[in-house]
User: What shape does this take?
Amino acid sequence: MINLSPSLKKRGEGRLQICMIETSKIIYSINIEDVQNVAEEEFARELSEKELEIIEDKLGDYIDWYSAIDIAIQNEILDHKQ
Assistant: This one.
């Protein structure tokens, strides 16, 4: 199922254009290769399948998603409008 959310955008001379945004689209992800690259660079070894399952289950607990999104909006959107 695709979740769509309407977004209003200005379109010259005060007209508005309605755009549909797919709200379930993934905009950032980390894959096994990313995790294994860090393990190899930091610990000089690959993680086992069981270790990868543990990291997969817990990685999100270590990432402050709210702050990351907030900072990105401030730095890349709001600061560029000034």
